[in-house]
Amino acid sequence: MSVRTRFAPSPTGLLHVGGARTALFNWIYARKHAGVFVLRVEDTDHSRNTQEARQVILDGLHWLGLDWDEGPQKGGSFGPYYQSERNHIYEEYLSRLEKGGHLYEDHGAIRFRSPREKVILQDEICGRIEFDLTNPGTHPDITLRRPDGSWIFHFVNVVDDIEMKISHVIRGEDHLSNTPKHIELYKALGAEPPRFAHMPLILNRDGSKMSKRDEGAALGSYPEQGYAPEAVRNYLCLLGWSPKDNREMISISEVIALFELNQINRRNAAFDLAKCFWLNGQYLLQMDLARYTELAIPFLEKAGISWPSYESLEQVLAIVKPKLKLLRDLPEWVIPFFTEEFPYDKESVAKSLQGNDRGESGSARLEALSTAFAELPLWNASALETSLKETAIKLGVKTGELVHPARVAASGRSVGPGLYEMLEILGPERTLIRFAAGAIKAIA
RNA sequence: GACCCUAUCGUCCAGUGGCCUAGGACACUCCCCUUUCACGGGAGUAACACGGGUUCGAAUCCCGUUAGGGUCGCCA
After folding, report:
1. Which of A251, A5, A247 is nearest to A124 (CA)?
2. Which residues contact A304 (CB under 8 A, 6 or more apart)?
3. Helix or strand or coil: residue A270?
4. Which chain A residues in 270-299 sit with Cβ < 7 A of strand B?
5. What is the pLDDT of residues A367-426, one digit of tens each?
6. Per DSSP, what are the bridge partners of residue A106?
7. Residue A70, SS3 per DSSP
8. What is the ipTM of this complex?
9. Spatial distance between the Cα atoms of A121 and A78, rounded to a whole number of angstroms
10. Is A209 helix (H, G, I), strand (E, B) or coil?
11. Among positive and negative, which fits the CA dihedral A357, A362, A367, A371?
12. Reported pTM
């Protein structure tokens, strides 16, 4: 049997991380078995079903690198892939149920008469579960169609999974209790039910239900903040699944190779943004410069930063890259390299340039440094370091007493990349001008 | 309320009867490295929900209790 999985989101205006993880596991499973991953948009009757809302889903999946083989923008043999365009199919299936005597009308709505049996589900993750549907009081007949003609989820979902020949339904555990009803529908339609795999849900750190407004809930917030998609994807893989060898960083190809549905943890997982943040830092650190630059550019453009050439941009990013965990923070770190209009942090100026009654000495130190640097035959990091340390000895102060004022004078900030690398890139002219300006600030 | 799922450090995972005085990671604390911030290295705090069984032996199996989550829609 060929594997066909699907992700069937509803366009609500945002892609929830829980949904993203469901999509991810479906995608992984399809890739592992050289199968097909289908994207189907369940947009039956919602007013909030807008083009923008649909786009959020597509963008989110694209960002995570989850390419679908059939679906919107892609086509496929079982389309259309928007439920709103599949009316004729639902009509056909409904009449089949009708002919089979499975339907009845109730206040204009069409309902499915349950056969009232015990239903056994052999779930790939949860194991064997027996549901007793014999009591109509506790398990009422489900509605398939509203009086206004619109369709109910349970029906169209099952019809589409049959039509699209879905072999494995991998979805959130919130559907577990609905599954026996779905199985009844499959049987009434004479279709073999797919394999089901119900994944545990994602909760907040405190164990409460994760709602749309909770931090980290919207997938769209990750690209905005400067997370690398590979890092978020890695984090999501580890929520409920593990390679069993204590690895935290794992490539997606390895996940695909090792992944098994029955190894998915059955316990709900709490979402820990701090760990995702850390993992992002690890990815950024190990990422090659070209990829890093690619990810960085949108953030710099958005901040209105321009750079003279790609090479000079890479040069700056190279020394800043090991310092940051979120691309969002990048602009303030690189501004001093590309403009003279960079801001001076008040506290840093007060502390490192002026300080108590050190104004004079801060000024004197910068001047001494300028004198030493001006005589440098070669302007590079190691020459600058040697020269600075010699100057420190000459003045009888600790290295840091020169480094800090120099950093603030050169960049306006007390944190940043290595001072010598920074000055090397800045070059002698800009460095000396900034030192002079800093010396004035020190006594101002 | 009924039904279903679950229960190991604060969090994510490892552990499928003896290798567990329970391991890794994040977070937190301290130390080292260091011009800052990071990175890296080292140390530390911290968990088998509770009660019964089964067994020579239980975090691991069974039952119950409790707790959390889910479903019970003419939402998806």
Report:
1. A5
2. none
3. strand
4. 270, 272, 274-275, 277-278, 281-282, 285
5. 999 999 999 999 999 999 999 999 999 988 889 889 999 999 999 999 999 999 999 999
6. A109
7. strand
8. 0.94
9. 27
10. strand
11. positive
12. 0.93
